[in-house]
Amino acid sequence: MSNSKLYKGSLSTIILKLLAENNKMYGYEMTQRVKELTQGELTITEGALYPALHKLEADGFLEVEMQKVDNRLRKYYKLTQAGTQERVNRIEELERFIETIQGIVNPKPSLG
Amino acid sequence: MNPKLTKEEIQFIDNYLKNSGVEYIDTRAEVVDHVASEIESRLSANNTTNFYEEFKVYMVQHKETLLKNAGKYSWSIDKKVLKEVFKNMTNLKVLVPAFLIAVILFAVDLKEYLNSTQILIAFYAVLLVLAFIPIILYRKIKLSFLRRIGIISTIPFIAIHNLLLGDRFAFEQYEMVYSFLFWVLIATTYTSYDFTQEYKRKLELL
Where do the domains of chain A lie, and which CATH numbers do they carry? Predict the structure, then answer.
């Protein structure tokens, strides 16, 4: 699953969801949280994560805060008001998508 | 608790990334933190203090994605820069000089002293110099958005200038056209200054 392309379309939704639950997070922390939540099934690579974060920031869904931590600069991401609304929309969209896929993968047996 | 890397080890990661082509400080800072966090975690997991060995193993596994990632930023930076320039167009520090320039342009009838070619050349030179101010001022500060501002403020600007002033009707309205171009350029220059000051403050944290 770690190299799967299946999650790529949902990466922004995953980021928005993580930030809604954790107030502010930095990139590496997000990768570790996802690994922990999925028991290592899902690995977010640096190559996918940072462009997605920068896109969400440019779209006005995230704001950034810099802090000095352990001899280096750390960039924390937080949801903006628009980001909070976007998260609700994207989660709904993702839930509908999962339901649709489930309908295809595990169709309910028809009574007729 | 994970062991923490020393200032020298952080500097080593920073230099390595810089020499590998992650040129801009702002984009590099985030990658340095990511690599350092992972190395700290590996040092703890492998119960070792051999930073260089862990760094070498990590880079063999991840260098390709790290460097590919560093070149992917431009559109989101452009979008951020454009939004900021647009927002700054209504900032008083931009509006006041832009308004004064507009007043001067409308008050002084340059057509009395110069022919159309001379007016074109004069404004072209002034605008071009102004457009390059951010690049000249901050050439030693390697920040990705400054490079993007440089591109945004020069190429389209020259294109608009040429397009509008190649048209006789537009030239008749040169006061209006130039007032607008100066307004945008002052906003661009102010945005470069503002972004640079903000990043300098952040980098001074180090």
Answer: 8-100 (1.10.10.10)
H or E stretch covering A51 = helix A46-58
Does the distance separating the beta carbons of B6 and A47 come in below 8 Å?
no
Question: Minimum mean pLDDT among A10-24, A68-82, B138-152: which range?
Answer: B138-152
Q: How far is B168 from chain A (nearest CA, A)?
A: 39
Q: Using the beta-carbon criterion (under 8 Å), do B66 and A58 form an inter-chain contact?
A: no
Q: Which residues contact A105 (CB under 8 A, 6 or more apart)?
A: none
Q: What is the ipTM of this complex?
A: 0.86
Instruction: Tell me the domain boundaries of chain B.
Output: 7-70, 74-203
CB contact under 8 A, B5 and A71: yes
Strand partners, A77: A25, A64
Residues of A in contact with B81 (CB under 8 A): none
As a whole number of angstroms, the distance between CA B204 and CA B206 comes to 5
